[in-house]
Structures are given as structure tokens and as C-alpha cells.
């Protein structure tokens, strides 16, 4: 990247912690947010566990006018955006008309406002069109978080939405960094939250990628001999990314780190005989960052918890960094996979890990001898950290990698 894209603010809404401090303490302490689904009756479904953001009441955080026009995933995103902007000390209410065009919003979404849309379609089928909310016209849409955040904060610069399933959070970050390099002073990439509602999990159940275990400690076990699918969840993270020079001009005194490399690939057609391309995504990201494999201190894994996908990921990591050549972790075992929210939360976690010199653990997992990686299990590992790679993959062949590193900020 030709100019520094630094992270000046974080907003986290996670199943195991609301806010950056609570989330980081829970993650280092091995606290899980996975439990039985409570937001609907899941007894008829094979999968009964999820990572839910417990105790969240939108009316405690947002104006009453926003509640009836937004899905839960948008409400979580709006709260995360508020927290991230406050953390970065960005006062959008004081922005001039000119500076508003220097602030953009990039989101990622895996399903849009699914819960809102499902409810309104049920009203249509059972009661008639007059019972369908006018807000259905946009509340279900993939780009709704971009729109609602930009409207709420007057952010009128280049914006967009990325749709690439679990890889979407990293793709949103990569696109936001491009905007910053191309002249946008500040960009808010937010990975959209994912609801653990009925229809959302259906394709994953059919494909066998969703765990049907009813034991929270044994349901999501990436790189384990007992791996049998993932647990879904809701939540995510929002990062404020700024041009380093612009951040210095407005007097920023601390940053979390730099997004210095991004790479994305797409896997070949199944049964084509060609190799998966996750390794290539890592190599592109490292080249984009101008870094070598030996410069990386930790890898945050995608952690699909499907044996054949775990094998692909472990192979890609060991081929790039060497057998057991770099510590690997997957703290999402404490939250579930948050669809497009998961990877951005991993990036936030990587930045917090670098700042603290602590690699959070991959809980409940006993590493299978089939994988030649140095997986951090049982408890956190204290070690100096300067740079991390975060990996994410989406259903259908999406692969993304992001490199983050510390910044000497004076």
C-alpha cells in the first residue's frame, strides 16, 4: 500500500462481550458466548446453539425513530459504529459540509435484514399487504447498514457494500483501505452482523457445515479430530480507518495499528482438479504489505471446523510459514462464526493482541495430529507481537487475507 491506512477506533458487539474492553477480557479469559438459541423456538431444528448478543436492547442505545425501521443486525451495526467513532474521537456532528465528503462507509453483509424481511413477508402472507411495513423496502437490503450509518453520521464520501459471505469483513476492510489511499481521509468499514434465525442456517444445515451438537463446549472444534461443523452467531466489529497524515492533522494521539496488506482469491470449480487458492491470497496480502512470512508473528485462522476445509487451511498456513512456523489461533470458538462479522472481529482482536502482546486461545480444541500448525490452545500465549495475518473464507470459494501491524505513532 502506498500510504498508511491506520486504525484509530474500534467498536465491538460480540456474543462474549459488549464493547472492546469486555470483549477483550472475555476472549483472553476463554469466556464463551455460545449457548442455546433463545430468540426463537429452535426445538424443531437440528442446530440448537448459537452465539447471541445477550441482553441487547436497541432502545437503550438508539433513538426511538430508528427502532421500527431497522433489523436487529442494523441496530447492532449502528451501536458498533457509534462506539468506534467515539473511540476514534471523531465528532461527525461537528463536521463541515466539505469534510463530510471526506468520510465514507463500507459494509459487508451476508444476508441483509433477514429477520425484518421474514416478519414482514409473514404479515403479507397471513394478513395482507396493508400490514407490511413501508420500511421493508430497505430494511432487508444488503446495503442498509451503509445507508443507515452514513445518514446517522452525515458521512457523504465514497461508500459501498461487499457481499462475499464469511470473507466479507476482510473485503470491506480492503476496499476501505483503497478509498483511503485514493484520497478519502476516513472510512468506516463495518462487517455486518449475522442473525442466527431460522432460514439463515438452512443452506448450512443442508451442506453439513453447521454443527448439530447440543454441547456448547464441543460444538465448534476447528482443527480437532471431532470437528463437525461450526456454530453460527451474531455480532461483529467496526473499525475506523484513516489516512495517517489526515489523522495526525486532526491531532490523533494513538492508533491501534495499520492495515498494511490485503489479498483475495476465488477457488476453482469443485472437482476441477485444481488447487484451492487460500495460499495465494496469503501471498498476495504479504506482497501487498511488502512483508515476508518470517515478519508475521501470529495467524488468525478462518477455522471452518469441517475436516476437508481445515486441512486446506492448515496446509496453506504451513506451506507459507513453514511447519509449525507461526502461532495460529481461532478465538471465534468463543463467539461462533459471525458470517461477514467474523473476520472484522478477528482483525480487531489481532490489533488488540499486538497492543497487549497476548495471543488469545482457541478454546475447547485438542489439535489433531493431522495438522502441522502451532495452534494456541488451553490458554492465552504471552509473546511480543508486531504483525498478524487474518484469514477468512466464504461459501462458494471466496478467500481473503489481511495483514495488520503495529505503528510507531509519534
Automatic annotation (TrEMBL):
GO terms for biological process, alphabetical: fatty acid biosynthetic process
Ketosynthase family 3 (KS3) domain location: 2-406
Superkingdom per UniProt: Bacteria
Gene of this entry: ardIorf2
Sorted UniProt keywords: Acyltransferase, Transferase
A Pfam family hit: ketoacyl-synt
Xref: CDD domains: CLF
Keyword Transferase included in the entry's annotation: yes
GO molecular function per UniProt: 3-oxoacyl-[acyl-carrier-protein] synthase activity
Protein name: ArdIorf2
Similarity annotation: Belongs to the thiolase-like superfamily. Beta-ketoacyl-ACP synthases family.
Amino acid at each position: 500500500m502506498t500510504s498508511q491506512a491506520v486504525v484509530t477506533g474500534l467498536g465491538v458487539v460480540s456474543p462474549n462481550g459488549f464493547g472492546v474492553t469486555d470483549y477483550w477480557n472475555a476472549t483472553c479469559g476463554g469466556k464463551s458466548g455460545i449457548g442455546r438459541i433463545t430468540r426463537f423456538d429452535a426445538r424443531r431444528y437440528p442446530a440448537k446453539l448459537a452465539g447471541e448478543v445477550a441482553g441487547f436492547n436497541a432502545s437503550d442505545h438508539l433513538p426511538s425513530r430508528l427502532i421500527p425501521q431497522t433489523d436487529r443486525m442494523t441496530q447492532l451495526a449502528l451501536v458498533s459504529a457509534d462506539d468506534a467513532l467515539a473511540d476514534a474521537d471523531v465528532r461527525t456532528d461537528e463536521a463541515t459540509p466539505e469534510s463530510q465528503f471526506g468520510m465514507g462507509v463500507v459494509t459487508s453483509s451476508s444476508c441483509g435484514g433477514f429477520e425484518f424481511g421474514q416478519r414482514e413477508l409473514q404479515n403479507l402472507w397471513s394478513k395482507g399487504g396493508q400490514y407490511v411495513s413501508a420500511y421493508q423496502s430497505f430494511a432487508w437490503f444488503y446495503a442498509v447498514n451503509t445507508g443507515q450509518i452514513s445518514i446517522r453520521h452525515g458521512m457523504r464520501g465514497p461508500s459501498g457494500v461487499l457481499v462475499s459471505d464469511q470473507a466479507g469483513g476482510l473485503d470491506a476492510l480492503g476496499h476501505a483501505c483503497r478509498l483511503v489511499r485514493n484520497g478519502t481521509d476516513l472510512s468506516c468499514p463495518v462487517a455486518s452482523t449475522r442473525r442466527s434465525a431460522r432460514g439463515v442456517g438452512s443452506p448450512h444445515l443442508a451442506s453439513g457445515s453447521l454443527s448439530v451438537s447440543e454441547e456448547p463446549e464441543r460444538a465448534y472444534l476447528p482443527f480437532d479430530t471431532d470437528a463437525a461443523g461450526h456454530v453460527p452467531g451474531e455480532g461483529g466489529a467496526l473499525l475506523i480507518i484513516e489516512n495517517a497524515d489526515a489523522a495526525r492533522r486532526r491531532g490523533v494521539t494513538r492508533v491501534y495499528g495499520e492495515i498494511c496488506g490485503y489479498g483475495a482469491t476465488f477457488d476453482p470449480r469443485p472437482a476441477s482438479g485444481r488447487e484451492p487458492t487460500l495460499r495465494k491470497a496469503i501471498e498476495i496480502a504479504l506482497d501487498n504489505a511488502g512483508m515476508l512470512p518470517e515478519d508475521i508473528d501470529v495467524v488468525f485462522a478462518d477455522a471452518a471446523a469441517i475436516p476437508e476445509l481445515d486441512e486446506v487451511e492448515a496446509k496453506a498456513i504451513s506451506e507459507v510459514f513453514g511447519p509449525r512456523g507461526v502461532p495460529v489461533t481461532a478465538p471465534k470458538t468463543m463467539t461462533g462464526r459471525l458470517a461477514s462479522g467474523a473476520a472484522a472481529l478477528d482483525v480487531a482482536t489481532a490489533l488488540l493482541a499486538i497492543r497487549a502482546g497476548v495471543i488469545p486461545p482457541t478454546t475447547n480444541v485438542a489439535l489433531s495430529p493431522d495438522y502441522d500448525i502451532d495452534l494456541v490452545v488451553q490458554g492465552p500465549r504471552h509473546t511480543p507481537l508486531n504483525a498478524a495475518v487474518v484469514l477468512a473464507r466464504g461459501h462458494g470459494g471466496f478467500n481473503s487475507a489481511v495483514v495488520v501491524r503495529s505503528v510507531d505513532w509519534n
